[in-house]
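Fold these two proteins, one after the other.
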Amino acid sequence: MTISAASVQPAASHYVNGKYVDDPDGTPMQSLCSVTGMVIAELNAASASLIDECVVAARQAQESWAALTGTERGRILRKAADLIRERNRELSILETRDTGKPLQETLCADALSGADCLEYFGGIAATVGGETVQQGESFFYTRREPLGVCVGIGAWNYPFQIACWKAAPALACGNAMIFKPSEVTPLSALKLAEIFKEAGLPDGVFNVLQGAAATGSTLVKHPGVAKVSITGSVATGKKVATGAAETLKPVTLELGGKSPLIVFADADMDQAVAGAMLGNFYSSGQVCSNGTRVFVQRAVLEEFLQKLQPRCAAILLGNPLDEKTQMGPLVSAPQRDKVLAYIEIGKKEGARLVCGGDRAVVAGCEQGNFIQPTVFADVTDDMTIAREEIFGPVMSVLTFDTVEEVIERANNTEFGLAAGVFTSDLTTAHGVIAKLKAGTCWINTYNITPVEMPFGGMKHSGMGRENSQHAIEHYSQIKSVYVEMGKLESPY
C-alpha cells in the first residue's frame, strides 16, 4: 500500500448526542499525514456554545444510562468490543494514517487493546456495587454510584486505545463521557463513537469534541462536568489539575516518564537487549512508559552494546502501511525537530553516540518525519537526555556497579511512571522493584500492559490508575446508608 494525500475526511468534526455535527464557529484545524505532510482531513475545534450543548446532552443521557442494570450496560460494551474486532483492519489503517505508526503495530496493539478493555469492563459492569455490614440488629450499606459527565482527554500516541481506556470504566459505572482527542490525531475517536451507537449505546452517552488546549480547558472547568481523566505531558497535567480544582473535580492524570530499565550482570542478555529495544523503539519511541534510562551493570556493558548495536541497525524503517515496516515516522514535523534537538544536546554534552543520531531518509517517503534508532552510551545522570522526556527513538545507556547505587540513581528523577529489572535472581528482582518509586513495573520484560493490570504513575507521572478493577474507583463514588432496626435512643 502507498501513502497518498487521499482524504479520510469524517462526516463532520464532532459527534454529539448520537450524530455528527459541524461547528462553523470553531477554529479550523487539520490532520496531517506524518509521511507526506499533506492534509488528510479538515476539521474545526468546538466552540463554547457547542461544548455547552454537548454537556447538556450528556447530562440528560447519563440519567437513563445509569438507570440500566450493570448487566445491560455491560452487554452493550461487549457488543462494541466485538464490532471493533470485526473492523480491526479498517481501524488500524486509519490509525496508521493519522499517527504514522506501522500497520504491523496498529493491527495487534491499538484497536484490539481497546476492544479488550471494553470487553473487560463490560464483563465486570454487573459486579459494580457496595457492601453491607451488620451493626448488631442494625446495619449499614454502601452504594457505588456514577459521578455524572466525565471528560476524557487523549494523547496522540495511542488515540483509539486511550479513548477506550477512558470510556470503558466510565460507561460501565453508568457515567456519560465527552472525549477530546489530541488535535494531532483526531480521527479514530469518531469511529469509536459510531461503533458505540451501532452497539446500542444511547445517544449522548459518548460524545467526541475536537480541539486543542482551549477546548480542553473549557471542558475541564465546565460546571456540568463531574470528572476529568487525561493522558498527556506533565505540563498539561498540571494545567488540568489546576483547572479542575476550581470546581473540585476529581482527576486522573496519566502523564510522562523517564523510566529506568535496569540490566544486572546475571541477566539473560539477549532478553535484556530485546526488552530495552521494546522499551525504547516501539511506536518510534513515542510511549510514555518507555525505559529510556537503561542502567547496565559495568561488567556486562560491552556485551550489552555489542548485542544491541546490530539489532538497532537491522530495524526496518519504511512506509507505515507496509506490513513489513518495523518503525515508522514520528507523528509530526515539530515532534521530529524536538527529538533531533535532544540528540544534538546529547552529543554536545559528551554522550557517546553508539548508533543512529540523525534523520532517516526512506525511499518513497522522503518527506516523512523519520529518525534513526539512536543509542547513546557513557551517559551520566546530569545530562539533559537522562533527565528530560524526549518521546522519540533515543536510548540512553548508563553504567552502574552496585544494587544500592542503581536504586538511588533510578529514583533520582521527578518522574515515577514505570520501571523494569532484568536479572536471573528473583530475590534481587523483587527487592529492587520494592524500592523503586514507580507505579508500573516489569521483571524480565517491558511495556506489557494487559487490561487486568493497573497502569499509572507516582510523583510527576500522575495520579490514579487506568484499567483493572481499580479504575472503577475513579469513575464512581461511595454513598453510605445506616439503617436503624431498633429503638432510637437520644439524650434529647
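Now the second one:
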Amino acid sequence: MNIELASQLHCVRCGGEVETTCGDCGPEAPLELRPPLEPGSGPALLELFSQRRLSRRGPDRSGVWRYRELIAPGLPEDLIVTRMEGNTGLYEPRHLNAFAGLSSQGKLYLKHEGENPTGSFKDRGMCVGISLAIAEGAKVVACASTGNTSSSLASYAALAGIPGVVFVPAGKISSGKLAQTVAYGARVLEVEGSFDLAMRLVEEASAHFGLGLLNSINPWRVEGQKSICLELLDDLGWEVPDWIVLPSGNLGNISALGKALREAHTLGLIDRLPRVACVQAAGASPFARYVESRAQGETGEFMIEPDPETVATAIRIGAPRSVEKAIRELEHLQGTALSVSDAEILAAKAAVDACGVGCEPASAASIAGLKRLVAAGVIPPDATVAAILTGHLLKDPDTTVGYHDGTLPGIPRPSGLGRQTVEANLDSIGAALSDLL
C-alpha cells in the first residue's frame, strides 16, 4: 500500500533523511520522524484541537489522534486503529504534596496513563504503530515486553484483525499483564532470560521472518507517545509546569516527551520549556548512572545493567534502546536522572494509592523521585510539577498485596495497612476498628 505521509524519517546522529537505515551512521543509528512544523501555526492548531474535544467522531475522540497533525500527518482516517485511547485523568491530590515535600504553594498534578484502554501508556504509541504497520503491509506484528507492551500489542492487533506475537521473559511478567495478553489472543513466547534477551530475539526474528516490530525503537511508537505530553499541556490550558517527572525503563517516554515539547515550542503552542526528571529503579538504573557520570565530566560509554532486578517490573530493563534520543532530550530540557530504591517506590505507591488514585509500582517511581529531588533542593518546594503515572493499579496485584501483607523480601510492611483476621463477633470487629472509632 503506497501511503504518502508528511513526516520524513531522519537519522538522529547525523540528521540526514533516510529511507530505512542511515548509510553514513550504520544500521544501529536511531531514527526519528519529523513532521512538518510551521512556526506560528500554534493558535490555529489550538482551535482545531479544542473543537475536536467536543466532537463525537472516532479519531477526534481519541487522545492521540486528536493531535494527528503532529502525530502522523497524511495518514488516511480509514487506516486509523483506535480504542479511544488517551483522555486520561489529570489529578491534583493536595494531600500528596506533604509526602513529596512540596509546600502549600506548590502544585502536584498526576497524569494517570493507567486509564488507557489496556491500563498503560503503551496504548498511545501502539495505536499509531499498529496503524502504520498495517498501512505498510505488515501481516504479523511483534514485540518484546515486560508486560505492558505485550498487553497493548495483543489488544490492538486483535482490534485490527492481525496476528500478534510477544516475547516475554519467562516467570518475570505479572499475572495481570500476562492475563491480558493471553485473553486478547496474542502468541506468547516465553524466553528463558531477561527482557533484554527477549528484545534481541524479537529483533532477530522480525528481520528474519518479516514481522512488524512494534517496540519503541519503531519511530511511530514514539510519535504516538508524544500525545501524553500534548494532552497534559492541553489539560493545563497550555500552561507549562516547572517540572515533569516520569519513570524510565527503555527510555521511549522521555524521548517522546522531549520531542513533543520541542515541537510544541517551535509551533508556538507553548512559550517556554519545562525541566524534566527521569526516575529509574536502583536495581535497573543504567541510564541514571550514565547521566550522573556525564554530569561529573566523564566521557565513558554507556554501560548496561546485565542482571536488572526490581519490584517495578515495567522498568526492569538493563539495556534500554533509546539512550541517544533520551540524552538529547534530557540535555535540551536541562533535565536530570536519578534512581530510587524499591522501598522508596513502594512507599510512594502506597501514598498514591491512599489518595484513591492508585498505580502500578513502576508508576510510583515518579513520586519517589520527586520526593528525593525536593529533599535535595533540586526541585523547589513551591514548584508546579506534573508526574506521569504510567500504569494501572491492577497491572501488578501480587506485588501490591505482598507489600501490604509484609511478605516482600527486604521490604517492611507499612503500618496501619493491610489485612487482618477477625472473629465473627462485634467485640473482635470493634477491636479491629478501635483506632477509627
